[in-house]
Each structure stands twice: as structure tokens, then as C-alpha cells.
Design goal:
By secondary structure, this protein is of the alpha/beta class. The protein contains 3 helices and 7 strands; from the N terminus they run ββαββαβαββ. It has a 5-stranded mixed β-sheet.
Amino acid sequence: MRAVIQRVSEAAVVIGGRTKGSIQHGLVVLLAIEDADGPEDIEWLSGKIVRLRIFDDENGVMNRSVQEVGGGILLISQFTLLASTRKGNRPSYSRSARPEIAIPLYERFIRQLEGDLGRPVQTGEFGANMMVSLTNSGPVTIVIDSKARE
């Protein structure tokens, strides 16, 4: 799994002209799933996201997690994060899991993230054409890959 995590002051996802999810102060998580991903990737990545200390404490130091500051999470599936641009100019998405593999893992990731966070998360819709808007706070953007564990 690969995730791009952005600290935001606000974010929303709109599908077909209707707001599907929105948050104030928290994290937008763009998530890509590959065939080789499994339960251990879900557990590790979810825990890492919830405990990632990228919110300011009272001294202005990034020392608090989304859980500690009571922030929200907006989770968006985005298979293009696994694009390979090695050959030519047209990206290859061959590392991205097919929907029959990715959808159950995505749904399990949502449940794990909600359990780790201790409250519901907002989501987009897997496979939908989504309009995502956000105000990146900082800016703070982190990329995490569950295979690299960094």
C-alpha cells in the first residue's frame, strides 16, 4: 500500500455534484492498493497514519498525532499512486490491484483506520470520478509505502 498523507485545515470530496465526505482540521489520505497487499499492510499503515506526529503542540513543534488533536480523516482511493513512468510517457498502472482484490482491502482498511482512530472516517467512493478539494496546512505532505516501511 502506498499513501500520500496531507495535513489539512479543510477538505471535501464531491461525486456527481454531491459532497460525499468532508473534514475540518485533520488528514487527507490518498491510498493505493497493490495485489501483494494484505492484512499486515493494513494494520501497519493504519497505525502509522493515526500515530504520525505532524500536528503542532503548544510550542509550535510537530509533536501531536491526528488522534491527539481530535482531527478528522478523509480517505480517498487513488490507484494512480502506483503508476510507473519508467517506459515512455504513458504511465503503467500494472502494480495497482484489480477491483475484485482492491475493494475488499480498501473496505477493511476503512474499518481498521476507524478502529485505530476511535471514530468514523470520511471517504470517497472506490472507482468513482471524484473531485477532491483541500487546503494543505503547512504545507505538510508525507508519502508512506507499507512495503518500504519508511
